[in-house]
């Protein structure tokens, strides 16, 4: 599904070039549940952003379902993202000028789902996440935990082939967090590939494989 070969990410600074990711070579198989761990500043979120095609400024090779992402134009990367990827951001990234309902409807419109079917799918997801009463509210009217739930709901609403999640339960209380992880596990068992970044050992326990980053380097990719 995904092949990374000698992937690197760096910035030019006043002291020269600073590397965030170094020589990352990894394969991700379709249907895996993978956790990326490591200390703050290890490059976890940067790697997730590249996998989500939100950042095209890297060197090395990145293949996604046979597409050479490292050679694609920005618009082509955006289209691949819209068609195949659901992303749970650590800082939510909900659209402030859209209601909860509209935020959930948007990914479906990208996939050209007809209006009646979109209404049914969004209604089901609102019910699944117990946020029906919030559907007409804007993100600014929600608590952090509620925004996190909406962000997770938006990531899964269009049944993407790949879900990327950056600390997906970071703003949820324990029961909500466990519910989200159980949902991810169920989606994974149904065939969805999931790659999460987390500091939580409990969340990592849901995955099949843990990849550790240290100062931008691949520390190991141990099979559980």
CATH topology: Rossmann fold
In whole angstroms, the N-to-C terminal distance is 20 Å
How much of the polypeptide forms β-strand, as a percent range?
25-35%
Order of helices and strands: EEEHEEHEHHHEHEHEE
Unreliable residue stretches? none
Give the oligomeric state.
Answer: single chain
CATH architecture name = 3-Layer(aba) Sandwich
Describe the structure.
The protein has 224 residues and is an alpha/beta fold. It has a single domain, classed as P-loop containing nucleotide triphosphate hydrolases (Rossmann fold). 34% of the residues lie in helices and 28% in strands. It has 7 helices and 10 strands. The protein has helices spanning 44-51, 74-84, 100-110, 115-128, 144-156, 174-189, 201-204, and strands at 2-13, 16-28, 33-37, 59-64, 67-68, 85-88, 162-166, 193-197, 209-214, 217-220. A 6-stranded mixed beta sheet has the order 6-7-8-3-9-10, sandwiched between helices. A 4-stranded antiparallel beta sheet has the order 2-1-4-5, with helices on one face. The chain is globular and about 50 Å long.
From the structure above, extract its key features:
about 220 residues, alpha/beta, Rossmann fold, four-stranded antiparallel β-sheet, 7 helices
Compact summary:
This protein is an alpha/beta fold. It contains 7 helices and 10 strands.
Topology of this protein?
Blueprint: E1 2-13, E2 16-28, E3 33-37, H1 44-51, E4 59-64, E5 67-68, H2 74-84, E6 85-88, H3 100-110, H4 115-128, H5 144-156, E7 162-166, H6 174-189, E8 193-197, H7 201-204, E9 209-214, E10 217-220
Helix pairs in contact: 3-4, 3-5
